[in-house]
Design brief:
Blueprint (H helix, E strand, L loop, with lengths): L2 H13 L2 H8 L3 H15 L15 H24 L9 E6 L1 H18 L4 E6 L2 H10 L4 E4 L9 E8 L1 E6 L10 H5 L3 E3 L5 H12 L7 E3 L3 H9 L4 E5 H7 L5 E4 L8 E7 L8 H29 L8
Length: 315
Protein backbone atom coordinates (compact mmCIF):
# COMPACT_ATOMS: atom_id res chain seq x y z
CA UNK A 1 0.00 0.00 0.00
CA UNK A 2 1.41 3.38 -1.03
CA UNK A 3 1.62 5.47 2.15
CA UNK A 4 1.61 8.69 0.13
CA UNK A 5 -1.91 7.76 -0.93
CA UNK A 6 -2.80 6.99 2.67
CA UNK A 7 -1.41 10.37 3.75
CA UNK A 8 -3.43 12.09 1.02
CA UNK A 9 -6.64 10.47 2.26
CA UNK A 10 -5.82 11.26 5.89
CA UNK A 11 -5.55 14.99 5.21
CA UNK A 12 -8.58 15.11 2.93
CA UNK A 13 -10.61 13.47 5.71
CA UNK A 14 -9.08 15.60 8.48
CA UNK A 15 -9.42 18.95 6.69
CA UNK A 16 -12.69 17.91 5.03
CA UNK A 17 -11.53 19.38 1.75
CA UNK A 18 -9.57 18.11 -1.24
CA UNK A 19 -8.29 21.62 -2.05
CA UNK A 20 -7.05 22.30 1.49
CA UNK A 21 -5.37 18.91 1.69
CA UNK A 22 -3.68 19.55 -1.66
CA UNK A 23 -2.46 22.93 -0.40
CA UNK A 24 -1.02 21.32 2.71
CA UNK A 25 0.84 18.61 0.79
CA UNK A 26 1.96 21.00 -1.97
CA UNK A 27 0.32 19.07 -4.78
CA UNK A 28 -2.43 19.93 -7.26
CA UNK A 29 -6.06 19.08 -6.63
CA UNK A 30 -6.03 16.73 -9.60
CA UNK A 31 -3.01 14.89 -8.18
CA UNK A 32 -4.78 14.65 -4.83
CA UNK A 33 -7.93 13.26 -6.44
CA UNK A 34 -5.81 10.73 -8.36
CA UNK A 35 -4.18 9.51 -5.15
CA UNK A 36 -7.54 9.05 -3.46
CA UNK A 37 -8.92 7.22 -6.49
CA UNK A 38 -5.89 4.91 -6.59
CA UNK A 39 -6.29 4.14 -2.89
CA UNK A 40 -9.99 3.40 -3.34
CA UNK A 41 -9.19 1.05 -6.21
CA UNK A 42 -6.60 -0.79 -4.12
CA UNK A 43 -8.97 -1.12 -1.15
CA UNK A 44 -11.92 -2.01 -3.34
CA UNK A 45 -14.16 0.50 -1.58
CA UNK A 46 -15.27 4.10 -2.01
CA UNK A 47 -13.87 6.35 0.76
CA UNK A 48 -15.50 9.65 -0.21
CA UNK A 49 -19.17 10.25 -0.97
CA UNK A 50 -19.11 12.23 -4.22
CA UNK A 51 -22.86 12.45 -4.83
CA UNK A 52 -23.10 16.18 -4.05
CA UNK A 53 -20.93 19.17 -3.20
CA UNK A 54 -21.00 18.71 0.58
CA UNK A 55 -18.06 16.74 2.00
CA UNK A 56 -18.81 13.33 3.48
CA UNK A 57 -16.88 10.18 4.21
CA UNK A 58 -18.48 6.88 3.37
CA UNK A 59 -18.83 4.27 6.09
CA UNK A 60 -15.74 2.58 4.66
CA UNK A 61 -13.93 5.94 4.62
CA UNK A 62 -14.69 6.60 8.30
CA UNK A 63 -13.43 3.13 9.21
CA UNK A 64 -10.28 3.45 7.11
CA UNK A 65 -9.44 6.86 8.63
CA UNK A 66 -8.64 5.11 11.93
CA UNK A 67 -6.29 2.71 10.13
CA UNK A 68 -4.74 5.55 8.10
CA UNK A 69 -3.70 7.42 11.23
CA UNK A 70 -2.21 4.26 12.75
CA UNK A 71 -0.31 3.46 9.54
CA UNK A 72 1.21 6.94 9.36
CA UNK A 73 2.14 6.92 13.05
CA UNK A 74 3.74 3.50 12.61
CA UNK A 75 5.73 4.79 9.64
CA UNK A 76 6.99 7.74 11.68
CA UNK A 77 7.86 5.51 14.63
CA UNK A 78 9.73 3.01 12.46
CA UNK A 79 11.76 5.69 10.70
CA UNK A 80 12.64 7.36 13.99
CA UNK A 81 13.73 4.08 15.59
CA UNK A 82 15.85 2.94 12.65
CA UNK A 83 17.48 6.34 12.23
CA UNK A 84 18.29 6.77 15.92
CA UNK A 85 15.54 9.32 16.45
CA UNK A 86 16.55 11.63 13.59
CA UNK A 87 14.37 11.45 10.49
CA UNK A 88 16.39 13.89 8.39
CA UNK A 89 14.53 15.62 5.61
CA UNK A 90 11.26 13.82 6.33
CA UNK A 91 9.51 15.99 8.91
CA UNK A 92 8.09 19.46 8.32
CA UNK A 93 6.48 21.69 10.94
CA UNK A 94 4.69 24.80 9.73
CA UNK A 95 4.59 27.29 12.59
CA UNK A 96 2.79 30.61 12.87
CA UNK A 97 3.13 33.25 15.59
CA UNK A 98 2.03 36.76 16.40
CA UNK A 99 4.72 39.45 16.61
CA UNK A 100 4.61 39.53 20.41
CA UNK A 101 5.74 35.91 20.56
CA UNK A 102 8.31 36.39 17.80
CA UNK A 103 9.98 39.29 19.65
CA UNK A 104 9.90 37.44 23.00
CA UNK A 105 10.74 33.72 23.06
CA UNK A 106 10.11 32.21 19.62
CA UNK A 107 13.77 32.22 18.52
CA UNK A 108 14.91 30.37 21.66
CA UNK A 109 12.19 27.76 21.20
CA UNK A 110 12.99 27.20 17.52
CA UNK A 111 16.67 26.76 18.35
CA UNK A 112 15.92 24.26 21.13
CA UNK A 113 13.42 22.42 18.91
CA UNK A 114 15.99 21.95 16.15
CA UNK A 115 18.48 20.55 18.65
CA UNK A 116 15.89 17.98 19.73
CA UNK A 117 14.86 17.11 16.17
CA UNK A 118 17.87 17.22 13.90
CA UNK A 119 16.85 17.75 10.29
CA UNK A 120 13.36 19.06 11.16
CA UNK A 121 12.23 21.51 8.46
CA UNK A 122 10.44 24.52 9.95
CA UNK A 123 8.33 26.90 7.88
CA UNK A 124 7.60 30.11 9.79
CA UNK A 125 4.77 32.62 9.37
CA UNK A 126 4.31 35.81 11.43
CA UNK A 127 0.79 37.24 11.23
CA UNK A 128 -2.09 38.62 13.29
CA UNK A 129 -4.25 36.34 15.42
CA UNK A 130 -7.27 36.16 13.05
CA UNK A 131 -5.10 35.18 10.08
CA UNK A 132 -3.14 32.59 12.06
CA UNK A 133 -6.31 30.91 13.32
CA UNK A 134 -7.70 30.83 9.79
CA UNK A 135 -4.46 29.23 8.55
CA UNK A 136 -4.68 26.52 11.21
CA UNK A 137 -8.32 25.88 10.35
CA UNK A 138 -7.48 25.52 6.65
CA UNK A 139 -4.46 23.30 7.34
CA UNK A 140 -1.95 25.85 6.03
CA UNK A 141 -0.26 25.85 9.46
CA UNK A 142 0.36 22.91 11.77
CA UNK A 143 0.82 25.04 14.88
CA UNK A 144 0.06 28.67 15.73
CA UNK A 145 0.86 30.81 18.77
CA UNK A 146 -1.83 33.49 18.96
CA UNK A 147 -3.76 35.65 21.40
CA UNK A 148 -6.87 33.46 21.11
CA UNK A 149 -7.52 29.73 20.69
CA UNK A 150 -8.81 28.19 17.48
CA UNK A 151 -12.30 26.73 17.63
CA UNK A 152 -12.37 24.78 14.36
CA UNK A 153 -13.23 21.10 14.36
CA UNK A 154 -10.22 18.83 14.64
CA UNK A 155 -8.00 21.60 16.03
CA UNK A 156 -6.62 21.31 19.55
CA UNK A 157 -5.76 24.34 21.70
CA UNK A 158 -3.64 24.68 24.81
CA UNK A 159 -2.79 27.70 26.99
CA UNK A 160 0.76 29.03 26.98
CA UNK A 161 2.38 31.26 29.64
CA UNK A 162 0.78 34.70 29.63
CA UNK A 163 3.00 37.65 28.69
CA UNK A 164 3.28 40.59 31.13
CA UNK A 165 2.70 43.92 29.38
CA UNK A 166 4.51 47.22 29.93
CA UNK A 167 4.68 50.79 28.69
CA UNK A 168 7.81 51.78 26.79
CA UNK A 169 9.16 55.25 26.08
CA UNK A 170 12.10 57.04 24.52
CA UNK A 171 15.17 56.57 26.73
CA UNK A 172 16.25 60.21 26.30
CA UNK A 173 12.79 61.74 26.78
CA UNK A 174 10.96 59.52 29.26
CA UNK A 175 13.38 59.33 32.16
CA UNK A 176 11.16 59.65 35.25
CA UNK A 177 11.28 56.92 37.87
CA UNK A 178 7.50 56.50 38.00
CA UNK A 179 4.69 57.82 35.82
CA UNK A 180 1.26 58.59 37.23
CA UNK A 181 -1.88 57.50 35.41
CA UNK A 182 -2.53 61.12 34.44
CA UNK A 183 0.96 61.49 33.00
CA UNK A 184 0.58 58.33 30.93
CA UNK A 185 -2.84 59.42 29.67
CA UNK A 186 -1.51 62.83 28.63
CA UNK A 187 0.78 61.27 26.03
CA UNK A 188 0.08 59.65 22.68
CA UNK A 189 -0.18 55.92 23.35
CA UNK A 190 0.44 53.26 20.71
CA UNK A 191 -0.84 49.73 21.08
CA UNK A 192 -1.94 46.85 18.86
CA UNK A 193 -4.81 46.87 16.36
CA UNK A 194 -8.36 47.75 17.40
CA UNK A 195 -10.20 44.84 18.92
CA UNK A 196 -6.99 43.10 20.02
CA UNK A 197 -6.56 42.12 23.64
CA UNK A 198 -3.88 44.79 24.38
CA UNK A 199 -6.03 47.52 22.78
CA UNK A 200 -9.12 46.57 24.77
CA UNK A 201 -7.08 46.15 27.98
CA UNK A 202 -5.63 49.65 27.61
CA UNK A 203 -9.08 51.18 27.04
CA UNK A 204 -10.43 49.35 30.11
CA UNK A 205 -7.45 50.41 32.28
CA UNK A 206 -8.02 54.06 31.42
CA UNK A 207 -11.80 53.78 31.86
CA UNK A 208 -11.30 52.23 35.31
CA UNK A 209 -9.56 55.46 36.34
CA UNK A 210 -12.24 57.56 34.62
CA UNK A 211 -9.66 58.90 32.16
CA UNK A 212 -11.03 60.09 28.82
CA UNK A 213 -9.68 61.89 25.77
CA UNK A 214 -6.41 59.94 25.53
CA UNK A 215 -4.95 59.73 22.03
CA UNK A 216 -4.62 56.02 21.28
CA UNK A 217 -3.07 54.77 18.05
CA UNK A 218 -3.72 51.24 16.74
CA UNK A 219 -0.58 49.81 15.12
CA UNK A 220 -0.16 46.11 14.37
CA UNK A 221 3.65 46.18 13.97
CA UNK A 222 5.99 46.15 16.97
CA UNK A 223 8.83 47.42 14.79
CA UNK A 224 6.70 50.38 13.71
CA UNK A 225 5.81 51.21 17.32
CA UNK A 226 9.47 51.13 18.35
CA UNK A 227 10.40 53.42 15.45
CA UNK A 228 7.74 55.92 16.50
CA UNK A 229 8.79 55.79 20.16
CA UNK A 230 12.38 56.49 19.14
CA UNK A 231 11.10 59.43 17.09
CA UNK A 232 9.41 60.79 20.26
CA UNK A 233 5.93 60.41 18.79
CA UNK A 234 4.65 58.92 22.03
CA UNK A 235 4.80 55.84 24.21
CA UNK A 236 3.64 52.28 23.49
CA UNK A 237 2.46 49.09 25.17
CA UNK A 238 4.52 45.96 24.48
CA UNK A 239 5.05 42.56 26.10
CA UNK A 240 7.69 43.00 28.80
CA UNK A 241 9.95 40.31 27.32
CA UNK A 242 9.89 41.98 23.90
CA UNK A 243 10.46 45.43 25.41
CA UNK A 244 13.40 44.19 27.50
CA UNK A 245 15.04 42.51 24.51
CA UNK A 246 14.54 45.49 22.19
CA UNK A 247 15.79 47.96 24.79
CA UNK A 248 19.24 46.37 24.60
CA UNK A 249 19.86 47.81 21.13
CA UNK A 250 17.20 50.48 20.66
CA UNK A 251 16.61 53.90 22.18
CA UNK A 252 13.72 52.73 24.37
CA UNK A 253 13.15 51.84 28.00
CA UNK A 254 10.44 50.20 30.07
CA UNK A 255 8.42 52.80 32.01
CA UNK A 256 7.26 52.23 35.56
CA UNK A 257 3.63 53.32 35.80
CA UNK A 258 0.70 53.47 38.20
CA UNK A 259 -1.36 51.81 35.48
CA UNK A 260 -0.90 48.05 35.61
CA UNK A 261 -1.71 46.41 32.29
CA UNK A 262 -3.16 42.88 32.33
CA UNK A 263 -0.96 40.18 30.76
CA UNK A 264 -1.41 39.11 27.14
CA UNK A 265 -2.85 35.60 26.99
CA UNK A 266 -1.26 33.24 24.48
CA UNK A 267 -2.69 30.00 23.12
CA UNK A 268 -1.20 27.27 20.96
CA UNK A 269 -3.58 25.86 18.35
CA UNK A 270 -2.58 22.84 16.31
CA UNK A 271 -3.58 19.80 14.30
CA UNK A 272 -1.92 16.52 15.22
CA UNK A 273 0.18 15.30 12.28
CA UNK A 274 1.02 11.58 12.45
CA UNK A 275 3.90 12.21 10.01
CA UNK A 276 5.55 14.98 12.02
CA UNK A 277 6.85 15.54 15.56
CA UNK A 278 4.87 15.19 18.77
CA UNK A 279 3.29 18.65 19.16
CA UNK A 280 2.39 18.41 22.89
CA UNK A 281 6.05 17.57 23.56
CA UNK A 282 7.12 20.58 21.48
CA UNK A 283 4.70 22.78 23.44
CA UNK A 284 6.23 21.65 26.74
CA UNK A 285 9.57 22.87 25.41
CA UNK A 286 7.95 26.15 24.30
CA UNK A 287 6.52 26.72 27.78
CA UNK A 288 9.96 26.12 29.29
CA UNK A 289 11.56 28.65 26.93
CA UNK A 290 8.78 31.22 27.49
CA UNK A 291 9.02 30.95 31.27
CA UNK A 292 12.81 31.31 31.19
CA UNK A 293 12.61 34.45 29.03
CA UNK A 294 9.90 35.94 31.24
CA UNK A 295 11.99 35.34 34.37
CA UNK A 296 15.03 36.93 32.72
CA UNK A 297 12.99 39.97 31.66
CA UNK A 298 11.48 40.42 35.12
CA UNK A 299 14.89 40.26 36.78
CA UNK A 300 16.35 42.71 34.26
CA UNK A 301 13.48 45.13 34.94
CA UNK A 302 14.06 44.97 38.71
CA UNK A 303 17.78 45.63 38.31
CA UNK A 304 17.16 48.65 36.07
CA UNK A 305 14.61 50.03 38.52
CA UNK A 306 17.05 49.76 41.43
CA UNK A 307 19.91 51.34 39.48
CA UNK A 308 17.87 54.20 37.99
CA UNK A 309 18.20 57.69 39.42
CA UNK A 310 15.52 58.59 41.94
CA UNK A 311 13.75 61.31 40.04
CA UNK A 312 10.40 62.58 41.36
CA UNK A 313 7.16 61.09 40.10
CA UNK A 314 5.77 62.75 36.99
CA UNK A 315 2.25 64.00 37.61
Amino acid sequence: MNLRFVEAFYWVATLRSVSRAAEKLFITQSAMSSRIAALEEELGALLLDRRDKSFRLTIAGARFLVHAQKLLELQRSAKAELSGGNVVGEQVLRVGAIESVMHSWLAEWLSALRKQHEGLAIELTVETTPLLLDHVHRGVLDLAFAAAPASAGGVSSAPMPSMPMAFIGNRAVHSARLYSAAAIAAMDIMTFQRGSQPYVALIDALAARKITGTRIHAISSISAMVELVEASFGIATLPLAAATRLSENRQIRVLQSEIVLPPLTIFASYRADPMSIDVPEALALARKCASAIELKSTRAGRLKTKSSSKKPMTR
